[in-house]
Amino acid sequence: MGGSILRILKRKSGLSTIAELVIGSAIMFLVIFSIYALFYSGTQTEKLTRTQWDIQRESQKALDDMSNEIRGAAQVADAQSGRIAFKNTSDVIVRYYLSGTNLMRTEGASYSGGVVKLEDVSSFQLSYYDSNNNQTWTPSSVEAVKISLTVTRSSDPACSISLISRVKLRN
Q: Are 70 and 126 in contact (CB under 8 A)?
C-alpha cells in the first residue's frame, strides 16, 4: 500500500496538469492586479494631496498679502461685500475684487484690469466692523475686515479649500 502511493507521487511530480496551470496563472494574475491596484491608488492619492497642497499654499499667500495690505491701510474708501478699496500709507487707492473666478488687485480709480492674485475663487466675501465690533458698511467707520474665500480647482472639483481671516486696521 505504501509503495503504490509513492509511485503515484513520483508520477505526478514531473508533470503539471492543465488545471494546475490555470490555477497558477489565476493566482499570478491576482497578485499582479493587486500590486497594480495598490500602485494606482497610491498615485491618485498623491495627485489629490499635491493639488490640495498647491491650492492651500496659493490661497494662503493671496489671503496673507491682502490681509497685510488692509492691515496697513490709512482708510477704507469702499466697503462692499464682494470688493474693497482702501488708501495705503502712500496715499494710493488699492482695490481687491472678484472678476469671474479671479481675485484681482488693482491700483487706481476703477475696478478694472489689475493683477490676478488668485485663480479658481468660487466665493469671496468681505464683512466690515466698527470700533464696537458691530457690522458696518460705512467706509469711514471700518476698523476691521473679515475676509472669507473659497477656492475650488476647476480641473478637480473635489479639491476645495475655504479660508477666513479677520484683519484689524492699524491706522
A: no
Q: Decide which of 156 and 101 is more confident.
A: 101
Pick from 62, 63, 74: nearest CA to 170? 74
Grid cell digits, residue 11? 508520477
Kindly report the backbone phi and psi dihedral angles of residue 77, in degrees, each rounded to the nearest multiple of 5, phi listed first: -105, -25
Evaluate whether 125 touches 163 at the Cβ level (below 8 Å).
no
Residues 6+ positions from 95 with CB-CB distance below 8 Å = 78, 83, 84, 85, 104, 105, 106, 107, 108, 110, 111, 114
Among 88, 78, 81, 135, smallest CA distance to 110 is for 78
Q: Where are the domains of the chain?
A: 28-168
Q: Which one-letter amino acid corresponds to residue 160?
A: S
**What's the CA gap between 107 and 139, in Å, rounded?**
18
Gap between the Cα atoms of 81 and 146, Å rounded: 10
Nearest to 128 by CA among 54, 65, 76, 74: 76
Measuring CA to CA, which residue among 104, 111, 112, 114 is closest to residue 66? 104
Q: Do 136 and 128 form a contact (C-beta atoms < 8 A)?
A: yes
Tell me the pLDDT tens digit for each residue of 41-92: 988 888 888 888 888 999 999 999 999 999 999 899 999 999 999 999 889 9
